[in-house]
Design the sequence.
């Protein structure tokens, strides 16, 4: 399942606490926001992972920085990771937590990649169609990727449906090459 089972253990523990508090999605959003902050600001990542500073010094600074910004649950959890020197597993923990939260909410995340932004009506239509066919709540994450030229690439879990113009052109090229007696050359 996950490359880091330790990350899954931490995610399950946090999920249990958040579920008891009725804050599953709120905690998930805070974790994701903190992870984005760490990814966007290299100085924060260096600070958190630095072996030079003692964990308790990092915890004090982290508590001060997160006061009135993050919930006590998330603050305590991040401090625990720092104390246990497990903060480098945060990405894996957030991913595992997200999976647990989605399963709890009977929600499926769907990635839709298009060459241009999805019009609002089409976004809603895709969501409605998938909700009725999968019998689950749907969370669409739309991303613009001009390199696909047109059409869409839809990912649901580990399944990918590639209806992009780029994919169709690649398939056409392969068919043409085979019909001419050439081996597939890329």
Sequence:
């Amino acid at each position: 399942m996950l490359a880091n089972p330790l990350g899954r253990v931490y995610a399950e523990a946090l999920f249990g606490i958040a579920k008891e508090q009725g804050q599953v999605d709120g905690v998930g959003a805070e974790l994701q926001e903190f992870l984005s902050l760490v990814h966007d600001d290299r100085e924060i990542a260096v600070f958190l992972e630095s072996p030079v500073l003692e964990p308790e010094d990092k915890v004090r600074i982290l508590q001060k920085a997160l006061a009135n910004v993050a919930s006590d649950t998330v603050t305590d959890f991040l401090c625990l990771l720092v104390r246990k020197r497990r903060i480098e597993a945060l990405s894996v923990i957030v991913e595992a937590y997200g999976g647990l939260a989605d399963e709890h909410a009977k929600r499926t995340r769907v990635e839709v990649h298009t060459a241009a932004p999805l019009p609002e009506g089409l976004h809603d239509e895709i969501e409605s169609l998938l909700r009725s066919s999968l019998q689950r709540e749907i969370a669409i994450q739309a991303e613009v990727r001009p390199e696909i030229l047109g059409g869409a690439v839809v990912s649901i879990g580990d399944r990918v449906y590639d209806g992009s113009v780029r994919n169709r052109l690649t398939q056409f090229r392969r068919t043409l090459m085979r019909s001419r007696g050439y081996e597939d050359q890329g």
Observations:
- The helical segments are 5-21, 24-40, 42-49, 55-66, 72-83, 90-104, 120-134, 165-179.
- The chain has two domains: 5-103, 107-179.
- The chain has a mean pLDDT of 89.
- Strands lie at 107-114, 137-144, 152-156, 159-162.
